[in-house]
Design brief:
By secondary structure, the protein is of the alpha/beta class. It has one domain: Rossmann fold. 41% of the residues lie in helices and 15% in strands. The chain has a seven-stranded parallel sheet with strand order 3-2-1-4-5-6-7, with helices on both faces. Helix 1 links the parallel strand 1 and strand 2. Helix 1 packs across helix 7, helix 2 packs parallel to helix 3 and helix 3 runs parallel beside helix 4. The longest helix is centred in the middle third of the chain and has 22 residues. It is globular, with a radius of gyration of 17 Å.
């Protein structure tokens, strides 16, 4: 029997890259999948679209209300949506900082908040996509790296709150290194030659590599709680 038969999942940012691969892998393992994203026309076939601008808290709340009309409960939330701008601390634009914080951190926290009361009494799972940049700050980390450190801190804070409350829900993070996705292309905008040289020097991770790690967490037995999976290309040095 497929690992996620009978489970219902929400995946944010499911229209491209890692989120697209996660949603497709969940479908293949028998789950009913809802995709929260702004570009709903690019979702994997079989994913139920819910249009949502994650920068807007009211739109997030409304998206979960739409979910309620279509599904009796939620079993898995994957907070995958994220933005990455090369925006330095010394001269970065406040608007880019705001947008990364709103999507990478605040929206993630709000989606967790909305998911919890929709989980079954036996327990649900939240999987947050962080980054290797949430474990160490690369020279070009800028404001992006602090948002990913915040994802790890938010995940730990939520785990502690759930334990203190005696709740059966579990929360984990997956922290990849460089993955060949549109997010990386956007991060290297204006530095395309640098990105090209990096792709020649190493094989980046594929979105499917990350999807398999997420699926491992989502399909693990109830007594197995995964904290954080860190993965990078074998060619990536730091």
């Amino acid at each position: 029997m497929p690992a996620l038969t009978g489970k219902t999942a929400i995946v944010t940012g499911a229209s491209s890259g890692i989120g697209h691969a996660i949603a497709a892998s969940f479908l293949a393992e028998g789950a009913t999948v809802f995709g929260l994203c702004r570009t709903i026309g690019r979702l994997p076939p079989g994913v139920t679209p819910i249009s949502c601008d994650l920068r807007n808290p009211d739109r997030i709340a409304h998206a979960f209300e739409i979910f309620d009309a279509a599904a009796p409960q939620l079993d898995i939330l994957v907070n995958n949506a994220g933005l990455a701008y090369l925006s330095r601390i010394t001269d970065g634009k406040a608007a880019e900082w705001d947008e990364m914080w709103e999507v990478n951190v605040r929206a993630l926290g709000l989606c967790c908040q909305h998911a919890l009361p929709r989980f079954p009494a036996t327990g649900g799972r939240i999987i947050n996509l962080s980054s290797l940049s949430g474990h160490r700050v690369p020279p070009t980390g800028g404001f992006y790296a602090p948002t990913k450190f915040a994802v790890r801190a938010l995940t730990d804070a939520l785990r502690n709150e759930l334990k203190l409350a005696g709740a059966p829900h579990q929360v984990a993070t997956v922290s990849p290194g460089f993955v060949d996705t549109p997010l990386v292309d956007n991060y290297f905008r204006g530095r395309e030659s640098e990105l090209g040289a990096m792709k020649e020097s190493m094989r980046m991770l594929d979105p499917g590599d990350i999807a398999r790690a997420v699926l491992h967490i989502a399909g693990a037995p109830a007594h197995v709680e995964v904290g954080d999976i860190v993965l990078r290309s074998a060619d990536q040095k730091v």
